[in-house]
Amino acid sequence: MSLGQCEIFEVGPRDGLQNEPGEIALEDKIALIDCLSRAGFRRMEVGSFVSAKKVPQMAGSGDVLDRIARQAGLRYAALTPNMRGFTDARAAGADEVAVFASASEGFSRANINASIDESLDRFVPILEEARHIDVPVRGYVSCVVVCPYDGVVTPAQVACVADRLFAMGCYEISLGDTTGAGTPDSIARMLLAVRDVVPVGRLAGHYHDTNRRALENIDASLSLGLRVFDAAIGGLGGCPFAPGSSGNVATEAVAAHLAALGYDTGLDATILAEAAQMALALRAAAAATP
C-alpha cells in the first residue's frame, strides 16, 4: 500500500558539480541534465550565478540553461546570491531561483563574506522583483546542525533564519546539513523548532551523507511530516566552503529507499541508474584533469 507521494529535488548539476576539482565540459553538463530531465523530476537545480572565480564549475550556467532540452512540467532552477545573479538567471531562462543563507555566522562569512543579517538584506530586492514577475524563490539554510567554523548550531538559530526567509516570500525552505554531522535526534530537534515558524509542507530536507546517516535522517524527517528531499545523482559533490564535508546523498539511493518504505516519487529507476553512471564518469574525468 502506498504511503503517498514524496518529491526528490535534484541538485546534482549544481550542488553536486560545484565541488568537483577539475574542469567539466559544458556539453557533459548538458548531457547529464538532459538525461535527468527524462527521469520524472518536477524540479531540478542546474546552475549557479555566482562568481566564477569562487566556484569555477558553475561558469557557463547561462549557456547550460540556454542549451538544455527542456521537459514540460519540469522547473529548472538556479542559485542567485544577489540581484545581478537574479537578473542573469532570468535572462538565461531559469524557471525559479534560490537564495542561500546560513544558520551560523562563521559559515556565512566564509561562504559569502557577509553576516547573516547582511546576507538576508541582499535578498530583499530579489524577493520583491520575483514577486512582481511571478518567479518562485526557494530559500536554503546551511549548517542546520553543525558549522565547520562555529561548532554546534542551535535549533533556535535555524528556526530564526528559516522564519525570516519564509516571511520574505520564499515558497519553500530547504534545510541543509552541510557538514553531514546530523543524526536522527539532532535533525528531529531542529525540525521541531523550525515547524513552529514555517509550515511543514513548506520545508525540505537537504542531508549530506558524509557520515552515512542521510537515509536515517530522512526517516526521522518523514516521521515529522516532511515530504521533499534534496539529493544529487551519483552522490556528487557537497559544499566547497565546508572542508571535508562533501557527500550529497545519492538520488538513486533516496529514490530506492523511499520506494521500499512505500512512498511514490514518480521517478524512473532505470533512467536514474543511467544518469548515475554519467555522474560517476564526470567525477572520474574531473579528478583526472590536471
Polypeptide structure, described:
This protein has 290 residues and is α/β, with parallel strands linked by helices. The chain is 43% helix and 18% strand. The protein has helices at 12-16, 26-37, 61-67, 83-92, 105-112, 116-132, 155-168, 184-195, 214-223, 251-261, 269-288; strands at residues 4-5, 7-10, 43-48, 75-79, 96-102, 137-142, 146-147, 151-152, 172-177, 203-207, 228-231, 263-264. The strands form 4 sheets. It has a 6-stranded parallel β-sheet. A two-stranded parallel sheet has the order 1-12. It has a two-stranded parallel sheet with strand order 2-11. Helix 4 (83-92) links the parallel strand 4 (75-79) and strand 5 (96-102).
Beta-strand proportion: 15-25%
| CATH homology superfamily | Aldolase class I
* Overall 3D form: globular
Secondary structure category? alpha/beta
CATH architecture: Alpha-Beta Barrel
The strand line-up of the biggest sheet is: 3-4-5-6-9-10
| Estimated radius of gyration | 17 Å
Please report the number of helical segments.
Answer: 11
Largest sheet: 6 strands, parallel
Pick out its properties.
290 residues, alpha/beta, TIM Barrel, six-stranded parallel beta sheet, two-stranded parallel sheet, 43% helix, globular
